[in-house]
Amino acid sequence: MAAAGSAAVSGAGTPVAGPSGRDLFAEGLLEFLRPAVQQLDSHVHAVRESQVELREQIDNLATELCRINEDQKVALDLDPYVKKLLNARRRVVLVNNILQNAQERLRRLNHSVAKETARRRAMLDSGVYPPGSPSK
């Protein structure tokens, strides 16, 4: 039995071009992880959208509280609440930026994986292997 990574041999004893065990494992692992990466990407996108909506609602509420505070004849001190809302908005924006950066890194990683997979498939289809490849 041939070891993983060695070239396959036909019944006539001639080497048969084919992917190495390592290439098969890498491709299988990529195919296994692809749905999880895509699902994570869609969830991050949904969270970012909801955070944009939350930020808009916080802005609206802060504006409304300021307007109510100005219109009141009895002095209500709403400034601490407005400050808390603005602090919450700042945190939402910060988390949104972190998610955006993570999503961009995930997109670049997914693109690199797809590019490498396409390159390896093209090499396998053409029968051309890089120098020193165990699949020769």
Helix content: over 70%
> Beta fraction of the residues?
under 5%
Strand order of the largest sheet: 1-2
Rg over C-alpha atoms, rounded to the nearest angstrom: 28 Å
How many β strands by DSSP? 2
C-alpha termini separation = 17 Å
Q: Determine the mean pLDDT.
A: 77
**Biggest pleated sheet:** 2 strands, antiparallel
How many domains in all?
A: 2
GO molecular function: SNARE binding
Main location: membrane
Keywords: Coiled coil, Cytoplasm, Cytoplasmic vesicle, Membrane, Synapse
Pfam families: Snapin_Pallidin (PF14712)
Give a description of the structure.
- The chain is mostly helical and 136 residues long.
- It folds into two domains: 23-75; 76-126.
- It is 73% helix and 3% strand.
- It has helices at 21-71, 79-126; strands at 8-9, 15-16.
- It has a two-stranded antiparallel ribbon.
- Strand 1 and strand 2 form a beta hairpin.
- Helix 1 packs antiparallel against helix 2.
- The longest helix has 51 residues, at 21-71.
- The radius of gyration is 28 Å and the shape is rod-shaped.
- The two termini are 17 Å apart.
- It comes from Neotoma lepida.
- GO terms for molecular function: SNARE binding.
- Keywords: Coiled coil, Cytoplasm, Cytoplasmic vesicle, Membrane, Synapse.
- This is SNARE-associated protein Snapin.
- Belongs to the SNAPIN family.
